[in-house]
Amino acid sequence: MPSASRRLLPALGSDPARTYRLGIMGGTFDPIHYGHLVTAEQAREALDLDLVLFMPAGSPAFKQDQRVSDPEDRYAMTVLATAANAAFYASRFEIDRPGITYTVDTLGDLRAHYPDNVELYFITGADAIMDILAWHDAERLASLATLIAATRPGYDIDTAKARIAASGIDFDVRYIEIPALAISSSSIRDLVAAGKSPRYLTSESVMGYIHKNGLYLREGE
Ligand SMILES: Nc1ncnc2c1ncn2[C@@H]1O[C@H](COP(=O)(O)OP(=O)(O)OP(=O)(O)O)[C@@H](O)[C@H]1O
Ligand SMILES: O=C(O)c1ccc[n+]([C@@H]2O[C@H](COP(=O)([O-])O)[C@@H](O)[C@H]2O)c1
């Protein structure tokens, strides 16, 4: 991993006698919303995570045929939304890596960077975990991190459980039930495009950024 990338990663505590738990909340975050923040906070508490990295994907693997906002805009909104929580850290790690963003690459780099007393926990919602068998090198991914799968309205977590159980891959998945927020980035984009208010679906700071930069003014953007 180039040294510039290493500098993008925060230090955890330096006590070699204790274990540190690092959460990674990956997403497109186009834009980030309260569903993402609640998911990460509930995961942090349930698994006693020391820090959660919010990692906007540079070039999301499953959205190659879709228009996605500039990574710098998605990162800037992530910084704004996470600023108030000392246990959250907005990371440029994936937006600064060229090429299609694969989680297995990220986790491999994090594993190489952090010492063995740092455990990795990759956080997803029920919809994302549903497709995990189709993720790039799912088998290696399973060996690099524990997965945290949170409930999400409209998605049946039991289907994901059954698929993963039948896969033959040794995933370590912790399933958590969280307060249901039926919020999605696409619904926020649609609201803005229709001239309607996304207020209380995401933070005031993110709303301010969307308006100031004229994001999502046309449908499908
Ligand atoms: N309301 C929610 N509740 C629980 N998990 C969520 C929620 N919204 C998003 N997530 C999870 O957050 C991660 C990142 O999601 P993403 O950035 O794709 O947002 P999205 O709202 O699903 O976007 P889009 O509507 O554009 O598909 C995924 O693991 C997803 O499952
Ligand atoms: O590595 C993969 O093949 C892969 C495929 C789909 C999604 N992911 C990751 O899952 C997270 C949620 O993705 P998305 O597209 O729902 O925003 C984000 O961190 C993505 O990089 C990863």
From TrEMBL:
GO BP annotation list: NAD+ biosynthetic process
Reaction(s) the record says it catalyses: nicotinate beta-D-ribonucleotide + ATP + H(+) = deamido-NAD(+) + diphosphate
GO terms assigned for molecular function: ATP binding; nicotinate-nucleotide adenylyltransferase activity
Keyword annotations from UniProtKB, A to Z: ATP-binding, NAD, Nucleotide-binding, Nucleotidyltransferase, Pyridine nucleotide biosynthesis, Transferase
E.C. number: 2.7.7.18
Entries under CDD domains matching the protein: NMNAT (cd02165)
Pathways per UniProt: Cofactor biosynthesis; NAD(+) biosynthesis; deamido-NAD(+) from nicotinate D-ribonucleotide: step 1/1
Domain Cytidyltransferase-like, first and last residues per copy: 24-189
Transmembrane segments: none
UniProt enzyme class: transferase
Pfam families for the chain: CTP_transf_like (PF01467)
InterPro entries: Cyt_trans-like, NadD/NMNAT, Rossmann-like_a/b/a_fold
NCBIfam families on file: cyt_tran_rel (TIGR00125), nicotinate (nicotinamide) nucleotide adenylyltransferase (TIGR00482), PRK00071.1-3 (NF000840)
Function: Catalyzes the reversible adenylation of nicotinate mononucleotide (NaMN) to nicotinic acid adenine dinucleotide (NaAD).
HAMAP family: NaMN_adenylyltr (MF_00244)
Family: Belongs to the NadD family.
Protein name, as recorded: Probable nicotinate-nucleotide adenylyltransferase
UniProt source species: Collinsella stercoris DSM 13279
